[in-house]
Structures are given as C-alpha cells and as structure tokens.
Description:
Elements: H1 10-19, H2 34-45, E1 54-56, H3 60-76, H4 89-101, H5 103-109, H6 112-123, H7 127-136, E2 145-152, E3 160-166, H8 175-178, H9 182-201, H10 207-224, E4 238-240, H11 242-248, H12 254-260, E5 269-271, H13 274-286, H14 289-304, H15 310-323, H16 333-344, H17 346-357, H18 360-380, H19 389-401, E6 403-407, H20 425-443, E7 463-465, E8 470-474, H21 489-505, H22 527-545, E9 548-550, E10 553-554, H23 557-582, H24 595-605, E11 609-611, H25 613-622, H26 628-637, H27 640-646
Parallel strand pairs: 3-5, 6-8
Antiparallel strand pairs: 1-11, 2-3, 4-5, 7-8, 9-10
Helix pairs in contact: 2-24, 3-4, 4-16, 4-20, 6-14, 7-12, 9-10, 9-15, 10-14, 18-19, 18-21, 18-23, 21-23, 21-24, 22-23, 23-26, 24-26
Amino acid sequence: xxxxxxxxxxxxxxxxxxxCPLPAAAGGDPRDNLYLAANGAWLDAxxxxxxxxxxxxxxxxxxxxxxxxxxxxxxxxxxxPAAGTAPDIGRKLVDFYDSQRDLAAIDRAGLAPLQARxxxxxxxxxxxxxxxxxxxxxxxxxxxxxxxxxxxxxxDPGINRVLVMQGGLGLPERDYYLSAxxxxxxxxxxxxxxxxxxxxxxxxxxxxGAAGRVLALETRLARAHxxxxxxxxxxxxxxxxxxxxERDAPGLAWQAFLEGAAIPAGHAVNVVQPxxxxxxxxxxxxxxxxxxxxxxxxxxxxxxxxxxxxxxRAAHFALRGKVLGGLAAPRPQDERxxxxxxxALGDGLGALYMARHFPPAQKAxxxxxxxxxxxxxxxxxxxxxxxxxxxxxxxRDKVKRMxxxxxxxxxxxxxxxxxxxPGEALGNRDRARRHEWLRLATLSGTxxxxxxxxxxxxxxxxxxxxxxxxxNLPAAILQPPFFDAGADDAANYGGIGALxxxxxxxxxxSTGSQFDSRGVQRDWWTADEHAAFxxxxxxxxxxxxxxxxxxxxxxxxxxxxxxxxxxxxGLQLAxxxxxxxxxxxxxxxxxGRGAAQRFFLAYARQWAVKRRDERTLQLLASDPHxxxxxxxxxxxxxxxxxxxxxxxxxxxxxxxxxxxxLRAW
Length: 665
C-alpha cells in the first residue's frame, strides 16, 4: 500500500539506535546513516508551520494544489453559462471551490445546512429506520459498519462487490479508547470535552451527560473492532447477502441498511471483519435506541464541523488539530478548499491537470520503466526465499499477467448529475460524497471495468490491487523525488523504481499468498512455504519491534510487516532492474557520485519528513508503515550493493555483517 512516510527527527534516530541494531545519527556520512546523509540538510532547515502536523522534503500535495489553484483561477475568468443552461464542469469546479472557502457564508448559515439531517435522526423510531438511515448516509459518514465500493469480488474478480468494514470511531483507532497509556487517556479526556462542546452548541439539554454516553458507546465499539494488525486479512472475508447477514450478524436490519445504501436487492457484499460485524450487531440489539440516535447526532456534527460556524470549527481544531495533530494553528481555508475540490471533482480537475502537467512522453517513460521492472521480477521470483518450485511457477504467471495503470485513466468520470450550488459549502460537500457513493453502489454485481481507476490521478500515492493483479501509479506521484524527467536512470530507479517494485512485492506477501495470478482468492502456498515466510517475517518483525520511536512507544512489527517486507523486496528488485538496464556498460557517474550511490541516495530522499510527536503517536497506533528513517535505512542495509557502493566497514552505523543481511529474492 501507499507511501506516506513517517517521522524524521534526529532525536528519534538516536532512540532507534539505542533500542535496536539500526543506525545512529552520525551527520552526513551514508555509511553511518543513509537517511541523514540524504536528508540531513533539509531536516536541519525544515520548520514545522503552526498549521501543519508534518512537512515533507517534497510536498507533493502542495505542488498539486498550487497547480490546481492556477487551473481554477483560469476557469474563473471564463464566461459563466447563460441562465437556464446546464453549468459546465469549469463552473462547477469554481462554484464548489468558492463555497468551501467562504467562511463568512458558512458562519451566516449557522446549523441550517445540517438541520434536515438532524431532524431525520430525531424522527427515527425503530431499529429498521435506524438501519435505513445509516444506509442513506453512506459516503457522508462512516457508520459502525460502513460500505466501501468499487472492488473486484475476492472469489470472482470479474464482478464488482461492495465491502463491509468496521468503523464508527471518533478517535483514530481502538487503542485510543482501550490503552492505559497516559497519552491516550489524556486524549480521551479531550475527546469527551469536545463531544460535550458539540452537544452544547447543538442545544443538547445535558452536554456533559451526552458526551459521557457517546464516549461509552464508542468504547464498546472499539472493543468490538478487530485489532489493526489483523483487520485486513482476506482469509476472514465472507461474501453474504442481506438474508445471510440477518442470520450471521443479527442486530443490524441488513436489508434496510443495504436498501438505504442503494445496494440492489439480493446482491452479496464482502464482510471484511465478520467478528466485528457480529459484535456491532450485538451492540445494536443491546444499547438503547436513544443512545444510538445521540451518537449519530454527535458523529454527524463532528464530520460536519469544519463547514459549520466558527465555534464548531474552533472546537474541531482544538481536538483534531491541537490534541491529535500537535498543531498551533488551523490550515488556511483555501488549502482545505483545494483538498475538498480534488476529492469531490477529481476527474473534472484531472483532465485539465494532465493536459498541462503530465505530457505523453513522461507517461511513456514511466510505463517503459514499469515494464523493465516487471521483467526483472519475472526472473527474480525464482529466488523468492520462501517459495518452492510449484509456487514459483504460479508466481511467474502472476508477474506475466500483472498490469500497471500509469498517470491517468483513458476516460474521465461524468459529473453531470452532481448538483453544485454557489455558497452551499456543506451541501456541496455532502452531495459530492453521496454522488460518489451512489456511483460505486451502482457497480455492485456488474462486470469489472479493468480500464476504470479506483484512485484519483491527483492523489500522490500508489497501490497494488491483488484482485486485479495490477499496480496503480497516479500522475501526482510521478514527480520529484519519486520521478524526475530530467534525471538519469540511477536516480529514477532508486525513486519511482523502488516504489513500483514495492507494489510488485505485495503480490508475494501474506496478502498476495491468498490471491492467485487471476486474482482469485485461494491459498497457492503450501504449509511449508507459509512456515518459511513466517520465519522470514519474524526476523524482520523483531528488528522493528525493538525500535522505540517515542518514550514508551514502539513500532508494531506485526502491523508494519507487510509494508516492511515490500520495502525490502522493492529496493532489492529495483536494484536488479537498474542493473539490467546497464547490460555490460559501466554505470555513469554524476555530481561526484557513482551511479550506485545516487541510486541509494535517491531512494532515501523520498522518505524525508519532519513530524510532530502527536501525529507520530497516532500513526504508530494505526499506520501499517514504519517510521521514515527505518524505511530508508533498513532495506539498504540488507543489500550487498549498498555496502559495496559506500564501502561500509564494521563499526559504521549502516554496516551489517553478510550473514545477517536479509534477502527476499
């Protein structure tokens, strides 16, 4: 999965060194610390603005937003359609953007934009009505069991299915409710105060009592959740229709829920955490309807607060900005408006963005790199440490069938049915979210369109889809430090090449073992192969478990194992692919560095990030990626080529004896 890197402060590196066999901070020598050698100067100069929880060496979202802002301002200068005619996409983009940043209009509107939905909650009188209402807010609110659409079926990847996921928590993850850690306890207290403020501003008679009831309900929900490290196991997924769900997870009126969500009658959904679905159903039976209605009122106020009057926005920031993110000031509304615009009308923006900023030649160059890495993987699978001969044959088929989507889709989504009204910030946002949900719900049970994209081309991220056996590389990530059209192959294979190879690595991890070359969920490994993988993974996990990132807060080696393995496999495969491009030619030097050194330094630069402790703590509890220094240094330390390139010796921070280096392939 995608690559938002994690913390990068020098004290953190010292803590890592004290607790595990990983490099200490030692200035700018890559033999002692590759991460600091690549990023130390930037880290010394980087300043965390008061409105940011983290800053990156290359702020790709900011780069995308600056380009989007210029596009919107150009559209503003164009003529508005005549009265009575349908607005074109350009006018919708401008009107949506303007509505999201007009705080004066938001303040004047008060709670009026939310009153109709709050009245719907007040009118709920039965469990059936509660379930149907939850279905009607899919896309707008993550309910205790929420729906995620647009996925190929696990058993029949030619058909679209909707996923049922655990959710409904107001804090980031279950540990925030259940851990005895003093930091989590303090956050719970702040959350209780926030809920009381929302209740008071909305006119609840007993705000403190309301907050206590909702926090108690959410704590029960947290206990019902499957822990993060186990929550996304494909082997647990069950495909069930409403009738089967009524038997398997009673308590939620499933037929009413799915009908409200516009899932066609009789269609099956894939339940990702069946144990959580059963536990949530039990809570729906046990807890009073009045408590659920109060809970949904406050959850709705919470997700709407950024687009409600000042007192709501201030309370929202006090919790989510200050307490959870460590921020001193909120982000400028203009930046938030640009993010909302890309979320709501991403394809409408995307077509305009690509014409300006992602030329066909750049797309073709990346596609050629991806193909060379795929061919390198075709050879490398014969060397995967944990696979036997039969599984390696299936692995070769998997690589042969693997596809990549690069840059942007061939066809753009139509927003003709989306209503955008000038000056309606919350209404526009919620209509856009529901519009997108209804698009995904309509796909349920239909044939998969392999040309369709699940990710916006404006999202600086990437992912591997095991059901479709394909890699997704949006244009937004195809810029420095990942890809630089002006750089040579050494830098680009260390950057985007390692990212592509990372995604290929996911085809052969614990999740990849459950999807074959055709994307069908089946276990194609033997028991011995699983045991060999677990033994290899245990060695990786042990090194990450030892890393204390903040006092008393360590990396979760089990949670981060799939991504740590993909980082390891990615760097090793990218190096292999780069070597194949050279053939018998010597690698060129540049800027006083050999090609191998530039490859590894380019890899480390993509992880440059400085982050507040509050944000780090949040990510350690929920993010499947390890801290940034580990992501840069750990994979490099395992590669013989790194040690040869920089001439490491015993005593160097990055040195690892030959027999301790982990080779994935």
